[in-house]
Amino acid sequence: MIDALYNGGLNLLADAWWTTMAWPVLWILIKIVAVLAPLMGAVAYLTLWERKLLGFMQVRMGPNRVGPFGLLQPIADALKLLTKELINPSAASMGLFRLGPIMAIMPALAAWVAIPFGPEVALTNINAGLMLVMAITSIEVYGVIIAGWASNSKYAFLGALRASAQMVSYEIAMGFCFLVVLMVTGSMNLTDIVLAQDKGDMASMGLNFLSWNWLPLLPIFVVYLISGVAETNRHPFDVVEGEAEIVAGHMVEYSGMGFAIFFLAEYASMWLVSILAVIMFLGGWLSPIDSALFNMVPGWIWLGLKTFLVVSMFIWIRATFPRFRYDQIMRLGWKIFIPVTLVWLLVVGAWLFSPWNIWK
Length: 360
What we know:
Layout: H1 2-12, H2 17-57, H3 73-83, H4 94-110, H5 129-137, H6 140-150, H7 154-185, H8 190-196, H9 201-204, H10 218-231, H11 256-281, H12 292-295, H13 299-320, H14 326-352
Organism: Limnohabitans radicicola
Pfam families: NADHdh (PF00146)
Membrane topology: Multi-pass membrane protein
């Protein structure tokens, strides 16, 4: 269908040589907007869903004043932040100070270039898609470091050190989780990783959800989910902005849209970590049961529902657990998760070469 749209547009603009050259660029821009526009809407309304769900869990209403059921609250928040004064610290390095928020949010948005929404439905369906996502998302830590250092503030710098150390620690565990999935799939193409979960005895019986990677790789799945919470600096791992210690951490000197961009980067990262969890472990756009009723639902809706459930888990965790101490967070990453993933890496490697290999 996408190829048909592209070829149709190319035929319409084939009269002049310059339109033939411009159409591929225009088509790429159209695809980028088609991905980013819903994503930014999802990021904005995730803030509302978080406040509503937390309100439900704490037996209160949540936002309900702006628009029907509070549905216009994210728009009101955006307008408020857009009109707030930008306060620049006099001793800050202004070039890097302004670069920090951009470096924080761009990787969380750029990584969607390789995310598939269905078979052959992606901005770029490349064979090294998993490696591309890992390479892009690893840049995000530089935004945090630059923001903390350029602010020329002790609180901001300490927050940046804590945030960057935490992000790097849990990136290692997440990298090993990706490596285990890569081993059982035999491909770094994200579409192939999803399609590989539609095979096996359970899939042939119509019980697709039992053939997804979450079941045989359950310890890796749990490690990935918890590491994703820590990687996005979400509660209970949000000590980088502990109010009793270092206020807002690396973004304490930012105001208005500078602060808002860091805020949006956190929620964009939550969506990215969640959809990667769905692609790697929960069958992507595949329906949980192979039946006529379930197969009537388009794949992108299944992908969206699963991602919504995973991202809601972030909020559930926030409402359930108290904030950890920083030493507990680092010990969990280095002394528990990394050894667990390394051991499971060896177990899966031996499993693949054994007669009980289920991924043949």
